[in-house]
Amino acid sequence: MTTSALLVMDVQKAITAHVSDRTYLPRLARAVGSAREAGIPVIHVVIGFRTGHPEAHARNKIFAAVPPTAFTEADPHAAIDQSVAPRPGEIVVTKKRVSAFTGSDLEVVLRSAGIEHLVLTGIATSGVVLSTLRQAADLDYQLTVLSDGCFDPDPEVHQVLVGKVFPRQAEVTTVDDWIAAAG
């Protein structure tokens, strides 16, 4: 039997503040709750930097534009959204780039726990989900993407990714279908 984990990625207050779909967080919270009930580990992945962002090169178009105090330990908006906040004992992985693997200890955590199957959720579909899926596929993980457990500010990009790109490397399903299959 393959050991699975649910990855909840970049669901931080500064990011969720820009989510236009008001049904997204409650739906994601249902997935998190169902994973917990089924004994599937929930791993939270966040973006985090030191003050001044010494990890972000000036050529990095995404992170060089972020204010120097954003996503630091002192930034209250860097916290994980309360609707999916980690419970005691749940792992929080801090990454330094778009992919959940880059600049983090995620692979060490997964390998140590014997995790072979990743269920991906997060914000944004065209950011952390896409980058993590590509890297995880190259690392030979079995992958599932919860299409409505992901959000992108561009609905058309989201649809192309979950409908055409992700199925090449992952099973794509909905939160409700995944919950039904896991239960």
Characteristics of this structure?
single chain; alpha/beta; Rossmann fold; 6 helices; hydrolase activity; Isochorismatase-like_dom; hydrolase
- From the 3D structure, determine the CATH topology: Rossmann fold
Helix content: 25-40%
Give the biggest beta sheet. Answer: 6 strands, parallel
Mean of pLDDT: 95
Number of helices: 6
Q: How many domains is the backbone divided into? A: 1
Radius of gyration: 15 Å
The CATH C-level name is Alpha Beta
Which structural class should the secondary elements be placed in? alpha/beta
Question: How would you sum up the global shape?
Answer: globular
Please name the CATH architecture: 3-Layer(aba) Sandwich
Low-confidence stretches: none
Task: Please give the order of strands in the largest beta sheet.
Answer: 3-2-1-4-5-6
Q: Total strand count, please?
A: 6
Protein name: Cysteine hydrolase
Pfam family, one: Isochorismatase
GO molecular function, one term: hydrolase activity
Keywords: Hydrolase
